[in-house]
Amino acid sequence: MRGGFGLVGPRRERHVVPATDLDLLALPVGDDGVVIGVDAEGRSAVLGINRPTPYEVTLIGGLWTAQVLALRAAATGARVAVETGRGQVWSGLAQAAGGGQQCVTLHEVGRIPPQGASAGSPVLVIRDCGMRPPRGRVVAGPWQSVLTLLPYLSPTAPRLLQQSSLVGVQRVSPDEAEQIGRLMRLPRPAVDSLPTLGDGVTLWCTPRDRQFVMTQGTDAETGLLGGARRID
Known about the structure:
With 232 residues, the protein is an alpha/beta fold. It is built from six helices and ten strands. It has helices spanning 63-75, 91-96, 157-163, 174-184, 188-193, 219-225; strands at 34-38, 44-47, 55-60, 79-84, 104-107, 123-128, 144-150, 166-169, 201-205, 210-214. An eight-stranded mixed β-sheet has the order 5-4-6-7-3-8-9-10, sandwiched between helices. A two-stranded antiparallel ribbon has the order 1-2. A hairpin with a 5-residue loop joins strand 1 and strand 2. The longest helix is centred in the N-terminal third of the chain and has 13 residues, at 63-75. It is globular. The termini are far apart.
């Protein structure tokens, strides 16, 4: 016994790693957030939606991807508030998420109340309001991110893309790809690939960075939502 320090632990040889081998200890861990899929190299792609600063995301894509993001955000402890004009397609998810706790709530367009987001209770607001979403009453703020879902490029898209911190683009027509390419300053290979993207593939981009991500549903997600699809 050592006074006040308890029993002396076992004595073993020290584990020594040569300095030349330190790089081999790197772990494949990205930023904190929601795992949204894998990149072209098979590494986990993470979307950090719980932030102390406002974070706007626009997704030009399908309902399936938005719902997978909602489930995975709820799994990280975030509350998810869905503003939608088609509550029937979200009701099953809202009932299934959270294991009986109301972590996903549904609200009619224009009637979403203040969410009271905080560091201990972050919020993701998903706006599924069609091609021409009205300006939201609840906006992005500290610990409250907003994701706006657009099924296709619309007249409101340029404004949304310009004010977004991150833009996700799934399969679109060649004309839409050209417009998005100009707005997001995408290189020609990326623009040419947009009309050919498979279901579940999203180009996540900013004016400076871009990354293709494949999202695959877990068994539970597939059982609830079905397989990945671009068209609802």
